[in-house]
Design brief:
alpha+beta; three-stranded antiparallel sheet; 2 helices; 3 strands; about 55% helix; about 15% strand; rod-shaped
């Protein structure tokens, strides 16, 4: 009888683990889909605060700026231009 209880307990734990795995898989799928939507839309996020970066022109250079003032990000061409003039 105790062997049957052990097997039933094992099966219940297996079912619970499978449900947890399914839940985690679904959460990962949702996050990946959000990331894909951002990439499709060309939306870049601030690495510090995760707000959408906004395009601006600063001193004649096109940059992406954090709306909270966490920083400014340059593409390679703007960075090289900045280096060559300073």
């Amino acid at each position: 009888m105790s062997d049957e209880k052990d097997r039933l307990g094992d099966k219940l734990r297996d079912v619970e683990k499978a449900r947890e795995d399914q839940w985690a898989f679904e959460q990962d799928r949702k996050l990946i889909e959000k990331m894909r939507e951002r990439v499709k839309g060309g939306q870049s996020l601030c690495p510090r605060c995760h707000e959408a970066l906004v395009p601006r022109v600063e001193h004649g250079l096109k940059v992406l700026a954090c709306p909270k003032g966490e920083g400014v990000w340059l593409d390679e061409a703007a960075f090289k231009h900045l280096l060559s003039h300073h």
